[in-house]
Amino acid sequence: QQQVKQSPQSLIVQKGGISIINCAYENTAFDYFPWYQQFPGKGPALLIAIRPDVSEKKEGRFTISFNKSAKQFSLHIMDSQPGDSATYFCAASTRGGADGLTFGKGTHLIIQP
Amino acid sequence: KAGVTQTPRYLIKTRGQQVTLSCSPISGHRSVSWYQQTPGQGLQFLFEYFSETQRNKGNFPGRFSGRQFSNSRSEMNVSTLELGDSALYLCASSLDPNTGELFFGEGSRLTVL
């Protein structure tokens, strides 16, 4: 049973555009929702994370929107740059991550110059 | 500050063999987690150690085991290797597992022939 569903699988955005990746979860016990960025040959790197007590968190060009009632959260990348081309994973966990992260399947993002 | 170091980076084994992978966490980090990454299943949680104790385990067979030493370094072992064990094995360390911020290494890529 896939507990975190991520879409789309792949995404092509023009430079300067907005990249939007969506995730939906099933387990209402999840209390921590991070996004990770992975470049080829590298391990995932934490990008930004949110807890369910807030509906939005912004760090630079990256914003997480969180809808607790719909059990959905999304990543918005503003002014997308070619250097943002990577695979993005949403994840969720209980106890702030101590129980292990459940990852979405990933989105392969390509920013065209 | 050095990041998470995993060795070996690449290895090839044959079915039935066993393998041991090593992980050195960021200095001061006492929590170490292991994840398996495959194209089909994505990132899946294997187990998490804190202060030499396994606190959580994912849904993997008993052939997958691990341990953590007093210096926080960790090893994972896979016995009786199967073709399906071919994957990138990622280690992540955390200063405080309850904050959810994991720092991943670049992984050990295992190929089982």
Index terms:
heterodimer; A: 113 residues; mainly beta; 6-stranded mixed sheet; 5-stranded antiparallel sheet; B: 113 residues; 4-stranded antiparallel sheet; 11 strands; globular
Produce the secondary structure layout.
The complex is a heterodimer of chains A (113) and B (113).
Chain A (H helix, E strand, L loop, with lengths): L3 E4 L2 E5 L4 E7 L7 E6 L6 E6 L5 E4 L2 E6 L4 E6 L8 E7 L9 E2 L3 E6 L1
Parallel strand pairs in A: 2-11
Antiparallel strand pairs in A: 1-3, 3-8, 4-5, 4-9, 6-7, 7-8, 9-10, 9-11
Chain B lengths: L4 E3 L2 E4 L5 E6 L6 E8 L3 E9 L2 E5 L6 E5 L5 E5 L8 E8 L8 E2 L3 E5 L1
Parallel strand pairs in B: 2-11
Antiparallel strand pairs in B: 1-3, 3-8, 4-5, 4-9, 5-6, 7-8, 9-10, 9-11
Describe this structure in words.
The complex is a heterodimer of chains A (113) and B (113). By secondary structure, chain A is mostly beta strands. Chain A is 0% helix and 52% strand. Chain A has no helices and 11 strands. Chain B is mainly β and 113 residues long. In chain B, strands 2, 4, 5, 6, 9, 10 and 11 form a 7-stranded mixed β-sheet that branches. Chain B contains no helices and 11 strands. Chains A and B meet through strand 5 and strand 10 of A and strand 5, strand 9 and strand 10 of B.
Strand percentage of chain A: over 45%
Tally of separate helices of chain B = 0
Considering DSSP H and I runs of 4 or more, what fraction of the residues of chain B is helical?
under 10%
Q: Which ranges of chain B are low-confidence, i.e. pLDDT below 50, for 5 or more consecutive residues? A: none
- Rg of chain B (CA only): 13 Å
Describe the structure in brief:
Chain A has no helices and eleven strands. With 113 residues, chain A is mostly beta strands. In chain A, the strands form two sheets. In chain A, strands 2, 4, 5, 9, 10 and 11 form a six-stranded mixed β-sheet that branches.
